[in-house]
């Protein structure tokens, strides 16, 4: 007998936290109720439709949607939609067991297997829990009798008498499979979800799931390694049996660990209470400091207020005395009544000084005190920022470091980081980024939670600089922020294209990879024959190749890598009107220094040669970048030669007729010139000798991959 009570935690759905009902096996090998899978997908679609608000499905109390960030819902809503008829539909499902986005494939929920074994175990558990509740016969006349067996073929329960009636001896029904009373009727044969009329008879070792022979012949498992179902059954059963025997043999060790965990639980309880007390004391200290500061500030404001009020009241009384028969004026009027000259002079002299001061104050009225308390405004912005970052710091949690070599910005930004100790000590990371602006210091940081050690960021502004920083969290403990890293976005939207393998492509001397993202010039036998005919002062033909997509308007940017061993490479743009001339350029076969009408070797022909080109190109080779002569001082040859960037970028502005060549690693413009954009413009490349060009790969979000562990 199975101790069903002890295994109940294995029978609980991670989504609804109840016993499994028709569990489905996800590609990550976790189980979720069929109803829960549907509810989670519906909740994600509703959240995305309502603006991406992160919330659970309020209409169903069973469901709990586990979503760590808004970015997950956004990714699911984008990846779950079909862009066009050529793009297969994929459905991403956030597994509540492992918290990862799982690709359910084109068939989505319909491509998942029901876990009948788990379903049977759950049913046995339910029967043990409700042993007092009998399963009644489905065919008895009222009142029904308690059933004694259930037929798996008929999907019904019978008492002894009804079973004999409906399964008479010597008939086909007598051969039906029957079990003890149950309400869980599963099919006898496991059918393929992709080919509903075929039973599964093989096991795919790559996808780790049962498949039928049609899946292997021409389906999605055609190139996968498969084995027979009997072999997989035997292998997995042997492995599982050995693992169970090993665990049973270590029962004493398990009990020791349980005892140790019991002590750790008590210790954790005590340490947690102690930590709470210490946290309370720390916050009370902060509160006391704030209360003292608050009291001091209020006292200072009150003292200043009283002083100002006293001054203003005194001034008001003085002005009140200037009224007739009142104060100073009244006193002066009484003095004027004095007839004794000596007494009048004695008193009037001092009084006259006061009257003059009062007269002057009337001419230049000025309040005795300021009414504004601007000097008493408390600036708490920095303190609020510091308190906002207030958290638990631990010496055991390392500060992550952003890997600048693996982090890059192209059509999107991918930021990678690592721990100095090469161990992932944090449970989750928080990546913050903001647009870098020297004029505005208080630009808000944007925050995103990440479970891995890399993140793809979209929707960044062109021709801008962004600061990135990251910190790790382990429970409530966090590390300090990493050092900020500044990365620059391209000067224009990224233009995507592949090398054109049709227009002018020379397959004898150029080699394209299958994806048409890399081109390499190869010095084969035809080049040897051409070189054998060359005697003096000549160089061999440049092999041209263009992009398969043109640009008619707007501003666009693309990047590529020129391999370090490349002898000579030219890169730039060409208009559609001059493509024919590009592939039949006579200047490519002999050097202008050897033309018959040239009587000297001054190099002036080079300037004429450059200006006569039907396209705009710059030269790279031997790990150098050469600026054209027109852009540099012809007397200073060294200023024309720069180190070749590891990644080169080209920015074409059709609206303003300009093309710029960039160090794409730092987004620094190396050279810019005007270009005629009257026609459709194409990216152009030329190679000679041993050389190779590789287009920069667009940044895409990569999801969790599962490895075979059989």
TrEMBL record:
One GO term (biological process): acrosome reaction
Name of the protein this chain belongs to: TRI36 ligase
Annotated ranges, domain B30.2/SPRY: 477-702
UniProt feature coiled coil, ranges: 273-307
Subcellular location: Cytoplasm, Cytoskeleton
Start and end residues of each COS domain: 336-393
Family label: Belongs to the TRIM/RBCC family.
UniProt GO MF annotations: ligase activity; ubiquitin-protein transferase activity; zinc ion binding
Pfam families attached to this UniProt entry: ANCHR-like_BBOX (PF22586), COS (PF18568), zf-B_box (PF00643), zf-RING_UBOX (PF13445)
Domain Fibronectin type-III: residue ranges: 396-492
Cellular component annotations (GO), alphabetically ordered: acrosomal vesicle; microtubule
InterPro entries (alphabetical): B30.2/SPRY, B30.2/SPRY_sf, Bbox_C, ConA-like_dom_sf, COS_domain, E3_ligase_FN3/SPRY, FN3_dom, FN3_sf
